[in-house]
Q: What sequence folds into this?
């Protein structure tokens, strides 16, 4: 049943070797998890997808792209997207500029998918410790483990 307003909670896992090394920007195998909820935080669907090798910000964008693409089947009205990636949320809300051509392509894909909805898509940051963020993270990790040991 299509809804007038839905909430998407996205997260990705990206396992990058030596990620703890200062200044290291690397790629790792990634997956995303998405909760599609009604506005009372009741679950409509939980979905996940393996993305392959990419950077952490690319994986966060891909989780949002996956969520928006899938969510069009659940509602065409207003959408809230919640992510624990402050960097990506700030890019999507215009607080941070986008300097990378790769990130610009992902940003443009998000904007294209937003046009599927009749009302606005809003982006919010929440801490990774929030229960919804932890559920989305668990979905991403579970999907990752299906494809990588």
A:
């Amino acid at each position: 049943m299509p809804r007038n307003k839905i909430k998407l909670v996205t997260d990705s896992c990206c396992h990058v070797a030596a990620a703890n090394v200062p200044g290291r920007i690397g790629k790792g195998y990634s997956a995303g998890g998405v909760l599609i909820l009604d506005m009372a935080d009741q679950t409509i669907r939980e979905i996940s997808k393996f993305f392959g090798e990419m950077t952490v910000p690319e994986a966060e964008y891909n989780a949002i792209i996956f969520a928006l693409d899938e969510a069009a089947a659940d509602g065409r009205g207003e959408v809230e997207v919640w992510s624990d990636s402050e960097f990506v949320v700030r890019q999507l809300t215009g607080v941070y500029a986008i300097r990378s051509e790769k990130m610009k392509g992902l940003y443009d894909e998000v904007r294209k998918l937003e046009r599927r909805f009749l009302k606005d898509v809003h982006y919010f940051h929440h801490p990774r410790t929030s229960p919804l963020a932890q559920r989305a993270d668990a979905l991403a990790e579970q999907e990752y483990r299906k494809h990588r040991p």
Q: What stands out?
A: The domain at 3-147 is CATH 3.30.420.10 (Nucleotidyltransferase; domain 5).
